[in-house]
Amino acid sequence: MAQFEERKVGRWTVRIDRLICVGFGDCIDEAGSWFELDEEGIATFRPTSSGDENALLEACRSCPVDALSVYDPEGGRLVP
Ligand code: SF4
C-alpha cells in the first residue's frame, strides 16, 4: 500500500502517513467510525468512514506521532 492515504471530508483533506503510524490506536479510540487498523496494524480509513467531523479533527490531533494531518482547501495545515 502507498505511504499516504487521503480522504476528502467536507472542505478538509485528511491524510494518513502510513510510514509514521505506529498503530497505538489513539485515533480509533477517538473516532472509530473514521479509522481502523488494517491487517498490518497500521491506521487506515474505514471503507464507509463517516461521522462527527469534530471527532475526526480531535482524533487527528490525538495521534502521538503526528501521522495524521488535516489540510484546508488552500493547502493550509490545520493539524498538527
Ligand atoms: S493515533 Fe496515530 S499512530 Fe496511533 S493508530 Fe492512529 S495514526 Fe497510527
Identify low-pLDDT runs. none
CATH topology, which one? Alpha-Beta Plaits
Strand count, sense and barrel status of the largest sheet are: 4 strands, antiparallel
Helix content: 10-25%
How are the strands of the largest sheet arranged? 1-2-5-6
**How many β-strand stretches?**
6
Write a brief caption for the model:
With 80 residues, this protein is of the alpha+beta class. It is 19% helix and 31% strand.
Question: What do these coordinates show?
Answer:
With 80 residues, the chain is of the alpha+beta class. It has one domain: Alpha-Beta Plaits, CATH 3.30.70. Helix content is 19%, strand content 31%. The strands form 2 sheets. It has a 4-stranded antiparallel beta sheet. It is globular, with a radius of gyration of 11 Å. Iron/sulfur cluster (SF4) binds next to helix 1.
List keywords for this structure.
single chain; alpha+beta; Alpha-Beta Plaits; four-stranded antiparallel sheet; globular; binds iron/sulfur cluster
Compile the SSE list and pairings:
Blueprint: E1 4-9, E2 12-17, H1 26-30, E3 35-37, E4 43-45, H2 53-62, E5 68-71, E6 77-79
Antiparallel strand pairs: 1-2, 2-5, 3-4, 5-6
Iron/sulfur cluster binds next to helix 1.
